[in-house]
Write a structure and sequence with these properties.
EC number: 3.1.2.20
Organism: Sphingorhabdus buctiana
Oligomer: single chain
Enzyme class: hydrolase
Family: Belongs to the acyl coenzyme A hydrolase family.
Distance between the termini: 17 Å
Pfam families: 4HBT
């Protein structure tokens, strides 16, 4: 049985802030979706590791939606928060916002729900620490 976590906004301070490089663009002049996915996984892993108080692994991406393209000069902010908590796993909601035009415009470019599992020394699932 998983425990829902309520009243936790995705926004707040960004977990990760990066600037894509020219090598990260595709033939259409947009940033590769795989590059964005990697940044989301890194940010989600940071949050999951804090919650688990140790190593974690990504085990699923339940939903991923690309809303708008990321452009070469965008500054990308990745936000992440706990959405659901189970015995050994947790679902982390991740949102990516691009800042454009020298900070004049913010555009939500993608979001997704990533599931992470806490790992023991043998790389097997272990219970999450108590929230008490």
């Amino acid at each position: 049985m998983t425990q829902a976590v309520h009243n936790l906004p995705v926004r707040g301070d960004p977990i990760l802030r990066v600037v894509p490089r020219p090598a990260d663009i595709n033939a259409n002049g947009h940033i590769f979706g795989g590059w964005v996915l990697a940044q989301m996984d890194i940010a989600g892993g940071i949050v999951a590791g804090r919650i688990a108080e140790g190593p974690c692994a990504t085990v699923a991406i339940e939903k991923m939606e690309f809303i708008a393209p990321i452009l070469l000069r965008d500054i990308i902010s990745v936000y992440a928060s706990l959405e659901r908590r189970g015995r050994t796993s947790m679902a982390i909601r991740i949102e990516v916002v691009a800042t454009r035009d020298r900070g004049e415009q913010e555009v939500k470019v993608t979001e997704g729900l990533f599931t992470f599992v806490a790992l023991d020394e043998q790389h097997r699932p272990r219970p999450l620490p108590s929230t008490d």
